[in-house]
Amino acid sequence: MLDSTTPKSAVARCPAGKRVHGIGGEIDNDQGEVRMTAMWASTSSTVTVTGAEEEGGYGNSWAVRAYAICA
User: Fold this and answer.
1) Tens place of pLDDT for every residue, the chain, 71 residues?
2) DSSP symbols for the chain
3) Which of 5, 11, 12, 52 could form a disulfide with 47 if both were Cys (CB 3.0 to 4.6 A apart)?
4) Domain extents in the chain
5) pTM of the full predicted structure?
6) In Å, how far are 22, 28, 46, 59 from 33, measured between CA atoms?
7) Half-sphere exposure of 44 (CA within 13 A, CB side)
8) What angle do CA 52, 57, 13 make, to 5 degrees?
9) What's the CA dihedral at 38, 43, 44, 45 to 10 degrees?
């Protein structure tokens, strides 16, 4: 979701019957003011990515995206 809430998490899921073999993530519209704080395979078929604004805050909207490479 593109808004100014902090921190944020995003989840990517593999289709039924597939498992995570790789993970990825990105911060959209961060202008260098938001950092990715964690990225992990939370289950064998789910990836979670979290991000948060830097200490001074960031007034613009931004989003976190998670990617799962599934097979």
Assistant:
1) 778 888 999 999 999 999 999 999 999 988 888 999 999 999 999 999 999 998 888 888 999 999 999 99
2) --BS-SSEEEEEEPPTT--EEEEEEEEES-TT-EEEEEEEEEETTEEEEEEEE-TT---S-BEEEEEEEE-
3) 12
4) 8-70
5) 0.87
6) 26, 11, 27, 9
7) 5
8) 20
9) -90
Alpha-carbon span 57 to 43, nearest angstrom: 31
Structure tokens at 47: 């990836």
Asked if 53 contacts 33 with a C-beta cutoff of 8 angstroms, the reply is yes
Query: Do β-strands 8-13 and 63-70 pair in parallel, antiparallel, or remain unpaired?
Result: unpaired
- How many CA atoms lie within 13 Å of 55's alpha carbon, on the beta-carbon side? 0
